[in-house]
Write a structure and sequence with these properties.
single chain, alpha+beta, 2 domains, three-stranded mixed beta sheet
């Protein structure tokens, strides 16, 4: 197993140079020997941790730098120094291979000005192992675009002592990651048992099937025909209403989403309508994505539609507090059902089948500030905001949506290609037509 790089790192830290290079794999990365906690401003403050934890953070970060540079920058990386479990190593390689299928449709330099920051936010020591929670913040520009793009996510890494006075990585999982969930399920914590020996065959079979599907998906991206003649699969235009329809400020929707997606404590979209932002991911088993989208719609000028009920209401679109709200405020399918049928008060949208856009026509059937929802093969699971348009690989005429979304305090996308979110599954546009007052 990999031994600690403490001698080299200690000298660098003492010189106030918080960087290191892996001689084995040639990657430059930042080392932050701290256990951050949140201060009153929602920022990360540093506090000292034990020397043994420092060494484990070192190992975990080097592991993750290898993963992200292999995944996003296509740099070959050797993970065998971190583990001798062939099944676990096979899963790591398979996950990177799946991400690299993007190369079928996009150039190797698609993510330019690439930057990665890793921060350890928790270390939990057990009798024979430690679980580290490490947040990754990735930023880049897609080729041909000066729009800032990126994403954030958290890794759970289990580390234990190895036989040669070092440490080994024995398990790794990224919560809310559609790839890990599709293979391992939506787990609440890393299991105590060694799944890479016990369940390896079942997991790797699932992985092979997932990778085959992703390869087929990226193989079709460049052969698909795109049209601006989009189909209204469900429209509220046929619903009669005695109320006037007012315009939403879609620029404000888009700007609010970009400014708040990565924040630990987002602001309310409109504090006169909903006083503060409640993070739904703090409820076990819940995601925050549709709540985030609802606040974005507030930022565009839509009023809430409070039907006056108590508890969790099946009517209207509002949030008073966590115990008194509409299901449409935070539910993916609930928001969809409300917004495409609404004729009373609050936001109104038309569902469109997703397609990329032929830019020279000048006819954009949806635009910045409109909504997009994603299917995972079983259900509609994720909501986001269209905040940019990005050229497809090798094209100067065809655009795809860039999506900004928030799943929890460490998991978000910022102007990420829609094709790289729940890849291979359906998505739909909710074109915001305005609001009723």
């Amino acid at each position: 197993m990999r031994k600690s790089m403490k001698n080299m790192l200690a000298s660098m830290v003492s010189m106030a140079l918080l960087s290191s290079v892996s001689a084995t794999n040639g990657l430059a990365y930042a080392i932050d020997y701290s256990n951050p906690v949140e201060n009153n401003d929602g920022l990360i403050a540093e506090t000292s941790i034990s020397y043994e934890q420092d060494k484990k953070i070192d190992v975990a970060k080097e592991f993750l730098y290898g993963y992200y540079y292999a995944k996003d920058q296509y740099i070959s990386y050797d993970f065998t120094p971190f583990s001798d479990n062939k099944y676990f190593l096979s899963y790591i390689d398979g996950k990177i291979t799946a991400a690299n299928y993007e190369l079928i449709a996009y150039p190797k330099d698609d993510k330019r000005n690439y930057d990665l920051n890793l921060t350890c936010v928790d270390v939990s020591d057990n009798v024979d192992s430690s679980v580290l929670k490490i947040n990754a913040v990735v930023t880049f520009n897609y080729k041909g675009s000066d729009v800032q793009s990126g994403y954030g996510e958290q890794s759970w890494i289990k580390i234990q002592d190895s036989d040669n006075d070092g440490y080994e990585v024995v398990d790794w999982y990224i919560p809310y990651d559609e790839y890990d969930i599709s293979i391992r399920g939506d787990i609440a914590s890393l299991p105590n048992s060694d799944i890479w020996t016990k369940d390896s065959e079942k997991l790797l079979q699932r992985q092979n099937a997932e990778n085959k599907s992703l390869k087929e998906y990226y193989s079709t991206l460049n052969t698909m025909v795109y049209s601006n003649d989009m189909t209204d699969t469900m429209s509220n235009k046929g619903i009669s209403s005695i109320n006037a329809l007012y315009s939403l400020n879609k620029s404000s929707i888009s700007t609010w989403a970009e400014n708040n997606c990565s924040l630990t404590n987002p602001s309310s979209g409109n504090s006169s309508q909903v006083s503060s932002y409640y993070d739904f991911s703090t409820i076990p088993g819940n995601y925050d994505c549709t709540n985030f989208v609802s606040h974005a719609i507030l930022a565009g000028g839509a009023p809430v539609y409070d039907t006056g009920g108590s508890g969790i209401s099946g009517t209207g679109w509002y949030f008073r507090n966590i115990n008194n709200r509409s299901s449409s405020w935070s539910g993916v399918t609930n928001l969809y059902s409300f917004i495409v049928n609404n004729s009373t008060k609050g936001p109104v949208a038309t569902e469109l089948s997703y397609t990329n856009i032929y830019a020279p026509s000048g006819n954009f059937p949806y635009t910045y500030g409109d909504l997009i929802q994603f299917h995972n093969g079983s259900t509609w699971i994720h909501s986001g905001v269209v905040t940019s348009f990005l050229y497809l690989s090798g094209s100067s005429t065809t655009l795809e949506a860039g999506v900004t979304s928030r799943t929890n305090s460490s998991t978000y996308t910022l102007n990420k290609r829609q094709s790289q979110i729940y890849s291979g599954h359906s998505r739909r546009i909710l074109r915001l037509d305005g609001y009723y007052a």
